[in-house]
Amino acid sequence: MERDPRKAGEDQHNLERENNINKEEKENLQDLLHKPYMTPVLLGIIAVLLICIIVLLLLFSMRSHETQTDAGDRLQQSITDYAKEQKQNDYVPGLSGEAVLTGSGNEEMTESVSGQSVPESGAEDGTVSGDPVANDSGKEPIVVEEEDENDVSYSKEFILNEALPYFVNNNHPAISDLAHLKRYVKLSAELKGTNQYYYIGDVNGAGRPDGKGLAIYEDNSYYYGDWSDGTREGTGRWFRFYINEKSRRNAEGAYTSHSYAGEWANDLPNGEGAEHYDVDTTRLASGKRIIQNVVGGFSDGLYDGDMFANTVNSYGNVEEWDGSAVKGTFELWTDMSAIGECSVWRNKPDETLYMDIDKSENKSQGIRELLKTDKSKDAE
After folding, report:
1. Is 196 exposed, middle or buried (0-12, 13-18, 19+ CB in 10 A)?
2. What is the 3-state secondary structure of 244-293?
3. Residue ranges of the domains in the chain?
């Protein structure tokens, strides 16, 4: 029986249709089979993007912190840089190395270490008269609160407020730089012979220093610390800067500053404390020693109890010493009365080595600059 060609064509067409449908269904099935794997891929992409965002935020935060740190560093820049900016027309002439001689300059200081003469520690023109009394006792504070209309730029209030943060932070280099500025030297000089001092800080109901505060005295001297009813009481630090000065007091220019930090009572060092000298070793004769630090007990400004010291020589070598004193008078390691000397300091590593002073000087040993002295001796 012969098959109808039309019928055969239709069958062929239907078969192709079925094949196409089957192919399309397979493709859809494959798409469905692949779709579950798309979720992890998308999640992975999202995770990568989140990580990138977090990294960028961290980098931005770190950069911002560095910027703030840099800004903080700039704010905390050394006062040395600050002083240099103002140095022109403001710094005191003669401070770049040469001290200006004051007084006759012919006074001799003799102290011996194994036969060598060295500058005497704490030497002061004159001796303490009677019981130790603070050199600043009885002085009237000028509490500075308002601007001086006659000099707004460098008023007393401006200077005290400028200095106060550096004393609070105990920034020694900054304090030294400020003290040498012309306006500070001038302000201190204004107090000469006035029996007064400038003060900024806490006061009591009577207007006297009480609490924490900063005082500027004559002779380029400063005190910051505790006060009680106008008296230095508690803990505090005192400074004296030798500016344009070369005398027996500062070892003919070898000492550039003098300070004490520790306990106070009755306006004087009382209790545990440390005395310190800044030393210009280039001004020392070859091999000469000079006392730099004294640590121990103090009674009304005098050495009292077990004391420890160190010396430095012209080569920068440091040696340690010990001694014992009772209210300014040292107990002797050796007594060489025959030659008028006595040993008051003993070398710690080598106990056969002593540091001697003139026997007549073994009294009122301490921070003599803080004590009232017998002025009659100054004229001798």
Report:
1. middle
2. CCCCHHHHHHCEEEEEEEEEEECCEEEEEEEEEEEECHHHCCCCCEEEEE
3. 7-32+40-75, 107-141+184-378
Element (H, E) at 225: strand 221-228
Residue 153: strand, helix, or coil = coil
Tens digit of pLDDT at every position of the chain (380 positions): 555 555 556 666 666 666 665 666 656 545 544 555 556 666 778 878 888 788 777 776 666 555 444 544 443 444 445 444 444 444 443 333 332 222 333 333 333 333 333 334 444 455 665 677 887 877 878 776 544 445 456 889 999 999 999 999 999 999 999 999 999 999 999 999 999 999 999 999 999 999 999 999 999 999 999 999 999 999 999 999 999 999 888 898 999 999 999 999 999 999 999 999 999 999 999 989 999 999 999 999 999 999 999 999 999 999 999 999 999 999 999 888 778 899 999 999 999 999 999 999 999 999 999 998 765 444 33
The beta-carbon contacts of 107-114 under 8 Å, at least 24 apart in sequence, are: 107/247, 107/248, 109/248, 109/251, 109/252, 110/358, 111/355, 111/356, 111/357, 111/358, 111/361, 112/341, 112/355, 112/356, 113/289, 113/353, 113/354, 113/355, 113/356, 114/353, 114/354
Which residue, 244, 238, 221, 318, is CA-closest to 279? Answer: 318
219, 136 in Cβ contact below 8 A? no
Distance CA 116, CA 118 (A): 6
- Assign 12 to helix, strand or coil: helix
Report which secondary-structure segment, H or E, holds 312. Answer: strand 302-313
- From first CA to last CA, the distance across the chain in angstroms is 161
How far apart CA 158 and CA 34 sit, in angstroms, is: 79
pTM, 2 dp: 0.66
Distance, CA of 81 to CA of 252 (rounded, Å): 29
